[in-house]
Structure formats: structure tokens, C-alpha cells
Amino acid sequence: MTTLETRTPKTAEEWLTRATEVRHRLAEGAAARDRAGETPYDEIALLKDSGLVTLLGPVEHGGGGQEWPLAYRVIREVAAGDGSIGQLLGYHLLWFWAARLVGTAEQIEAVEAEATRNRWFFGGAVNPRDEDVVIRDAGDHIVYTGRKSFSTGSKVSDVTVLEGVLEGTDTHVFAIVPSAQPGITFHDDWDNIGQRLTESGSVTISEVQVPWEAAAGFREKVFEPRTYNTLNVPTIQLVFVSFYLGIARGALEEAAEYTRTRTRPWLHGGQERAVDEPYQLDLYGDLQSKLWAAEALADAVAEEALAIHRDAWEVTPEQRGAHEVRVAAAKARATEVALEVTSRVFEGLGARATATELGFDRFWRNVRTHTLHDPVAYKRREVGAHLLRDELPEPTWYS
Known about the structure:
Layout: H1 12-27, H2 30-36, H3 41-50, H4 68-81, H5 83-102, H6 105-118, E1 122-125, E2 134-137, E3 141-148, E4 159-166, E5 172-178, E6 184-186, E7 203-211, E8 218-219, E9 222-223, H7 232-261, H8 278-304, H9 306-310, H10 317-349, H11 361-370, H12 376-389
Parallel strand pairs: 1-4, 2-4
Antiparallel strand pairs: 2-3, 3-7, 4-5, 6-7, 8-9
Helix pairs in contact: 1-3, 1-4, 4-5, 4-7, 5-6, 5-7, 7-8, 7-10, 7-11, 8-10, 10-11, 10-12
Keywords: Oxidoreductase
InterPro entries: Acyl-CoA_DH_C (IPR013107), Acyl-CoA_Oxase/DH_mid-dom_sf (IPR046373), AcylCo_DH-like_C (IPR036250), AcylCoA_DH/ox_N (IPR013786), AcylCoA_DH/ox_N_sf (IPR037069), AcylCoA_DH/oxidase_NM_dom_sf (IPR009100)
Organism: Pseudonocardia ailaonensis
């Protein structure tokens, strides 16, 4: 891959242009990389070289100083080139931001400065359905031991966000640790049908020590809670929405180019070009319209959240709950649209386009794999309960 311009973008438009450049580089050979399933070291190096990993970082330390609405659009753009790398970037930005989510003011400043200056790439071993990572209080430090069935980013990460439960309590503790250390073993067992380059296999954590002062949000071994701590779910759900829609965008645009240049008109249709077939015009018009609508909803919900992120220390449960309902709606719509787009594009491609070499199936496999993360029916339920019963969702690991 050729080297990108090293100057840090200044405006939202410049960042989107940079993301588009990254997208085009990733799109080259994406189908072959998907088949090979190799660790994406070069692709993560591209994200670092482009500066996209520091998009949310402080300007004074070389970061972009940008906010979540732009970050979601950047994730979407990158995912259009390669869904796996879009997910990795999205998760990285989430864990980069996690210091703001749960950290103390001092921790936020220290983590963001160090991560931005060094262009750390974040991974995370934070599967909430695993309850087997136990944290032992060892005086001036804590010790993580156990296993997580998923650790997205694994070998390509510089640091990993760990999560576990303090022994004898129900207190969860997050901490950032170096990924390359004897106490962390990545098992390279991610072998799923989609998102094959996300390095999302299991991990064993053995006696990983963390100073108490690095336990996110703790002072004198006591966590200082605030409503903003619960913004992890709506924020990561919008990350999901972003790369679902990005993958759908990549599928639609790649399919349209194939139809324009290679699909043959049906021999009994009376048209000389596939692009003049009435059913092709209807198909692509339908899919484009649905994708535009889902993207517009996602952008609107992201903008609505700005007030919450800008007033993180004062956000109320009511503000958080109302935002979660809107996120749930965006997640439900993005899931349905992305699955439809990535499946139905085959109707406009023709039988020859099912060749393994072309890899059009990867778009659907990628969306289908990750949209099973949590049942979309429960997102629709949150929206329905709010509409019919004026209920706001209680914060959980999934709502």
C-alpha cells in the first residue's frame, strides 16, 4: 500500500477525505484478504499512518480533536472498503474513548495524551457474557486472571482494555494494559464466516497486574459513578450501525460498478445494456433509497448525542434513556437494511458474479456475522416500550 500524506487533517471534510483514501486502498484486494484470513498488520499500519486512530485525540498531542458524529462517518467510510478493518477502527475508537467514559479527570488526560502521541491501537477483552475473569486485590495493585471468549483486535493491538469482577463483589473494573506481555495469550481461534480479519478470538489472562491508580474511575479503591458511565452501550451500538451501513455501502457501490461494466442484459428483456433493464433500475433505486434513509437516521441520532457527550459530568438518566431509544431504532433499521442490501445485490449481478474470486458474498457474511451480536428484536422492543408505555430502557451491558 502506498504512503498517505502525513499532515494531520484539520477539518471534518479533510478527515472524511482521508478516510476515503483509506477506503480505496483497503478495497484493493479485499476479497483476497478475506479468503486468506491473515492477521491485518499492514491494514492497521495504514490506519495509524493515516492518523485515523487519533481522530478523537487531543489536538495538542497531535490528534484530530473531533467528536463522535464525524467518527461514525469515518468508520462507515473505512468499512465500505473492508468491513473487518471498519470494525477494528470502530472498536479502537470506542476503547480510546473509554477513558472519558469511566475514568477520572486525571486518567482521561493521561491516557488520551499517551495514546495520541504514540498512536496506540486499542483492542478489548470485554465480553459481558463471560463471567470468568476474576480480579484479586493485592494491596497497591489488582490482578486479573481468567478467560474471555472474544478479544477483538488481539494481536494487532498495542494495548488491550481488560474487564473483570473484583473478587467477592459485583464490582466491574476496567484497565488498559500492554497487549504484548507474558500474562496475555491470544489463541488465534477466530474462524467465523464473516468479519474474518477482526482478530476476535479468545484470550487467556494470567496474573496480569495493574496498579490501583490505573483502575478506571477509582479513587482510593472506590469507584465514582456517574450516569455517563452507562453511555458505553448506545455509543458502541452506533459504532455497529456505522460499520453495518459502511459494509452495505461498499456492497451496493461495488455491485453497481459490476452491473454497469460486466452484467449482461437478459436475452429476452429487449435491452442492450443491463443498466437499461427496468428491474435493475427498480432494484438499485430501492436499495439506494433504503440505505440513504438508514444513513440519515444514523447521522441524526449521532448529532442528537452531542449534548450528552459535551456535558458528560452532568448528563441525566432521562437524557441517557431517550438517547438509547433512538439508538435502538437506528440499530434495528441499519441491521435490516444492511442485510437486505448485501443479499439482494446478487439479483442485479447475475450468476457469473457468484465466482469465489470476486467475493461479493463477503459483504453479506460480514453483516450477518456481527448483527448476531445481540438480538435486534430487543432493540425494537425498547422502541415499542417507549412509544406505548413511555418506558426508558434501564442501563445494562446491552441496553
